[in-house]
Amino acid sequence: MIGRLNHVAIVVPDLTVARTLYRDMMGATVSAEEDLPEHGVTTVFVELSNTKIELLHPLGEKSPIQGFLDKNPSGGVHHLCYEVAEIDAARDQLVASGARILGDGEPRIGAHGKPVLFLHPKDFCGTLIELEQA
């Protein structure tokens, strides 16, 4: 079921600083900032040859990642995103195996314009997992 690693998401306190760090210091190709109001985040993607790094910053007062940033003022790794061929089938198989889906359990459109789901970190060794339909 699980496919390739799509991205590693890092919450950052200052998106401009983080974007500049990856672009200028590390020499990476970095996307423009994109606001995703339905997810309460602003994202930037760092393109690597084998995956991506997603830099996340809270968008709005009710951002779901604000609590993470409050607990970790310097930022840090937030989640891992894996690709799946068919997100509804993956969800159903995971739920049947005892995994918990965050939210209402229905896929939402993510930063790449594809359906995504998040899996409860307590079910995956303390790691928040995002699944994205490939």
List the helices and strands and how they pair.
Elements: E1 2-11, H1 15-25, E2 29-30, E3 34-36, E4 41-47, E5 52-58, H2 66-71, E6 76-84, H3 87-96, E7 108-109, E8 115-119, E9 128-133
Parallel strand pairs: 1-5, 6-9
Antiparallel strand pairs: 1-6, 2-4, 3-4, 4-5, 7-8, 8-9
CATH class label? Alpha Beta
- Helical content stands at 10-25%
Number of domains: 1
Main pleated sheet: 9 strands, mixed
Number of helices: 3
Per CATH, the architecture is Roll
Residues in β-strands, percent: 35-45%
Could you tell me the CATH topology label: 2,3-Dihydroxybiphenyl 1,2-Dioxygenase, domain 1
Whole-angstrom Rg: 15 Å
Account of the protein in words:
The chain has a single domain (2-133), classed as 2,3-Dihydroxybiphenyl 1,2-Dioxygenase, domain 1 (Roll). 20% of the residues lie in helices and 38% in strands. The chain contains three helices and nine strands. Strands 1, 2, 3, 4, 5, 6, 7, 8 and 9 form a nine-stranded mixed sheet that branches. The chain is globular, with a radius of gyration of 15 Å.
